[in-house]
Amino acid sequence: IPPVSIRYLRSILEPKDAPPDQGYEVAFAGRSNAGKSSAINTLANIGRLARVSKTPGRTQMINFFTIDDERRLVDLPGYGYAKVPGEIHRRWEAALERYLRYRESLRGVFLLMDIRHPFTEMDEIMIEWCAHRGIALHVALTKSDKLSRGAAKNTWLLAKTRLASYGAPDFSVQLFSSLKKTGTEEAWEVLGKWLAL
Ligand code: GDP
Q: Which residue has the CA at smallest separation from atom 26 of ligand 1?
């Protein structure tokens, strides 16, 4: 993978404000606190890119980053924390679903799951959406430094089996730690393939 530089582009609430739907896009998804912002920062290798702000206004936005005119990374709103009022929550879920359903340039979903709490209900829904729509999916089991090597590998094997049960050919899973900076090469191999880098 050639070195790339990643710039923050914009945050949107409405799909109409998204950058033109062309080229290659990879979406990062995951439950709030799964380590998504940290992972994006680690993969982009420039500090605080995804902005770790947790205010309700920000959490429902879709954040776009550009690599070049043809390639983008997308930070989807983190799900799972029902701390926001119902109305905001519904808008955010609808925006997420709309994005996944209609975005033509979407080449793959990079799903972050805390290795200690994998496969939450919303994770399963996200995985089913990908399987149903034929979108490639790569799962990163984050914070793998929190488990022993053996326990982490065991969780990885279980996750692999569980993902295989969806019967989708382009589903994969890896261990990842932003703290230890492990798994970044494996992650970029997948991102590079999806983004045709
Ligand atoms: P987000 O809500 O999914 O964007 O999650 P954040 O990236 O903000 O991370 C949530 C919490 O997990 C923060 O306290 C991070 O410091 C911590 N965290 C994130 N990645 C790692 C990791 O690889 N290892 C460890 N030990 N903690 C992490």
A: 143
- Spans of all domains in the chain: 7-194
Residue 52: pLDDT band with limits 50, 70, 90: very low
pLDDT class of 87 with cuts at 50, 70, 90: confident
Nearest ligand 1 atom, CA 146:
26
Does the pLDDT of residue 1 top 90, yes or no? no
CA end-to-end span of the chain: 6
Q: Which of 31, 32, 38 to mutate to test the pocket of ligand 1 (most atoms within 8 A of CB)?
A: 38
d(CA 61, CA 159): 29
CATH 3.40.50.300 fits 7-194, yes or no: yes
In ligand 1, which atom is closest to the CA atom of 178? 23
Report ipTM (2 d.p.): 0.99
